[in-house]
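Onboarding guide, step 5: your first structure request.
Type a short instruction followed by the sequence, for example:

Predict the 3D structure of this protein.
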Amino acid sequence: MGYYKKAVVGKIMDESSTESSVVRDAGKGALLVLFLVTMIDMIGFGIVIPFLTYLVEDLTPDNQIANIGLWVGLLMTSYSAAQFLFSPFWGSLSDRIGRRPVLMVGLVGNTVFFTMFGLANSLVLALIARFLAGVFNGNLAVARAYIGDVSNSQQLATRMGIIGAAFGLGFTFGPFIGGELSNPAARWEIFQNTIFDSHPYLLPCAVASVLSLFSLAVAYRSLPESLPPELRVQSEPKPWATQMVQITKNSVSMLKANNVSLIIWVTMLFTFGFTIMHAVFILYTEMNPANGGLAFSEADNGRVFAMIGITGIFTQGLLIGPLSRRFGSRRLIPAASVLTGLGLVLVPYTQAGNAWTHILIVAVLIALGNGIFQPSSSSYLTRIAKSNGYELGVVMGAQESLGAFARILGPLTGGLVWTLTVSQDWPFDYHTAFHLCGVMMLAAAILALRLPALDDDDPPPQHEAEE
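The system replies with structure tokens like these:
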């Protein structure tokens, strides 16, 4: 829609030059607001990661303790599943009524349902709150559409990078805040005998809600609409079922497409293995050392995820450029898969006596691998799609849909495998889920070795580069 808009604006510039100028100016003034909105969205998403397992343990009846892993997987999966199911609806709605109101509706949803999650007194209520938070959080896709509306082709990559930076910062600060503010009554006397004592995870959820409310106020005051009325879709929206059928058809067609399908399969395997870790990492770290765990607190886990986030920002901000120029994306993809898989497999072999040294090394390996894989795979997919004449929007949409499916399946699989194996004997014990992560990463790396070379993918020999 963004490219179409710019073409139409060019045609009607003589008749409506003032309105065209407003549209262009909106992009310059809105970038900071979009950065803030996206970052706060991701803070709200990541803030629950350090304490989710502990919340499930608190709400699980004594006769269902064995199902804790499954409930953790369900709660993580529900958010991604809701986003996958409802993102087409929000995208279509933003095409008809504009980006600004849809962004603000998402912020209202965040405000309400994060608080609801913190107040949940049953697993079912927590699951409903988490699902509804995912339903209303279509902001990332709409923010990207907004940037497409107000950016020319030269500006697009840089401005999309701003959203990526906000994403990374939010995912770094969110877990840290969530860990530090969990169970405040046990740490600060002022919270004792208050609602934060009876609901130990309400405070970080309330902070996420307040940040979302602040973002809503900023967006209401300073975010102009990017899509003028004459460029909005005037026809009746397609039914949800029709949209889902079309998404499925596009995804299946891309899985069969020559060359493009290979990198999409690699990305799916990587995402699947990586998101298994999301469900089982804290199940492991919070486990009693007598059973092989580390007895980490919510704050400890928040610091680990903050370290992963910081390393990821460093990797994508400083390392990926030189590495790409030196080795090329095609070589980096299998190497990154192996690096990430090594880190994931080593997680459950941490010894409680030197837990922090080991877990930080592991976290750096995981963050480096993921930080190299994501931009490398996206860059490779974009270039191979263009070189083979595929429509980029269809390819990226299919890749995002299949990635979402992997993010739905990963935590659920991790929680189920953990539930089935945690009390068993080695090698099929609590190590099993992490071994499965490694298997998926190894499969991704092997498949990535078959990726075809692109004309500009192989860097020049070192002596030529120096000349």
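Each response can be followed by summary notes, for example: The mean pLDDT is 82.
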